[in-house]
NUDIX hydrolase
Amino acid sequence: MKGYDRYAYEPFAVTVDLAVFTVRGGALHVLLIRRGQEPYEGAWALPGGFLLPRESAETAARRELAEETGLPEAVVAGLHLEQLRTYSEPDRDPRMRVVSVAFTALVPDLPEPAAGGGGDADQARWVPVGEAAGLAFDHALILGDARSRVGAKLEYTCLATGFCPPEFTLGELRSVYETVWGTALDRPNFRRKVLATPGFVEAVPGAARLTGGRGKPAALYRAGPATALHPPLLRPTEGHPK
């Protein structure tokens, strides 16, 4: 381009990082890889990597996720990735100036990653969020931001029903919220809000399930037709840690 000097600015690289969450065994898990090379060789990190020439950030995110975790391509292609934010502190990567575009997703029923990892990862696994410590780069910051984002998604979407069986009790649905939000919820208040939200859940006529208590069997529900919650189901401002 006439009059433009491409060498007038210092070069930098662009990467992508992904914070992918699911609920496993009643706990919120994040997908991590163990780095197989420097920098931070042997440290756990979020999946990610450098953009290739003429590759969009989202395309790179899906490619890196498949390469480093071994998740099936069909699974990766079907993930709804949400762009989180851009991380651009000058010293966030010891190799050079690197700007990262982070993505996040909260998805039910994700399979185990490949045990050996791939790319510059030598292992991949699901890790409880509370145990994801000592992450490489600024990935602890990205993880914290991503958890806040997915927690907010449960406030205004019906995503939580996807983590329940086809027919579920309100207690099972409440457990999903408590797991992702990390706080105990008031049972009567939760029940009232859920049943007052149009299209959130539908009662299964005549169906009930014993839940292990001494009371009567709990009524069963299925996901309703709504995709968004009106009004939103807001997190309590003060709660008891779960």
Notes: The CA atoms of residues 16 and 101 lie 5 Å apart. The longest strand covers residues 13-24. The chain has five helices and eleven strands.
